[in-house]
Specification:
Layout (H helix, E strand, L loop, with lengths): L12 H23 L13 H47 L12 H21 L4 H8 L1 H7 L5 H18 L5 H26 L4 H26 L3 H22 L12 H22 L24
Helix pairs in contact: 1-8, 1-9, 2-3, 2-7, 2-8, 2-9, 2-10, 3-4, 3-6, 3-10, 4-5, 6-7, 8-9
Length: 315
Amino acid sequence: MIVRDRLPLKRIWPQAWKRLLVLLVFDCTVAVVYSVLDHRWISLNGLPVAPLASALTIFLAFRTNAAYGRWWEARQLWGQLVNTSRALAKQFLTMLDDEDEDPGRVPLRNSLVLHQITFAHALRCHLRKQAALPEIRTLLGEEATEELSACKNLPAAIVLRMGSLLRQARNEGMIDSYRWTAIDENLTMLTNIQGACERIKNTPLPRQFDYLPSILLDAFCWLLPLGIVEDLGLMTPIASVLVSFTFIAADLMSREISNPFDNTIHDTPMTALSRTIELNLREQMEEIDRERGWNYKQRRPRAITEVLPVDGFVF
């Protein structure tokens, strides 16, 4: 996701320069044929350029609003995941009663928190179609990785595994029915968040939102120099390319944000958010362990660092 105050032109130019170059050649040809070769028939002075531009703007605005709605919903879902993860960690660390904990092993409450951290990373990899097993192996170890490797939907499998651990805690008398119900509601929330993210990922914008604006944009860019050449003459290429670039840039940006889980600079910053979840939840574990006189940092599976913006972007 872009975190700068402005969008660098170099981020748009690589995707637009080929179309603009072709249009520039066509615009120059029209200007030379009309002004130098004196072929006045090429001019379409009666062409309603302004109404065409207005109609194209309306179509692009509809698609941009729809694309931004998808992007913003994705960001809200991951914000909800951050809040739910913190709530679950608090419940795991404060609601599970285990008086016979062995300082030599990871307590069950901490194991549940590690599963919650793993869920955030696994969901990110699941949505971006990346391999999640390395993350799982680092956080949960080889045994859990082998158990989960046969599952196609790893985030859902991790939630199910968390439910199994909670059932174990209930059978051992570490949690009563009321607290079980409270925690189970948040586990269900994780499932709902994952389902909503998969809905956005697997359901593209309707083809009408993509096809019709593209056709209108191409038609407008090719007709524009014919409609303004009589008034601008040899200056037609400059004006035509500038106007075309405005509409092409709007078209490209609406396409980019319509897929918020594609691991581009315009998508939801899931890497940064999952790292934030990991940092917050590990800090909560360490606070509980310090109260009990343990040093959990010595058993930490890996060192965690902050995710900082790189070149004005976070992922």
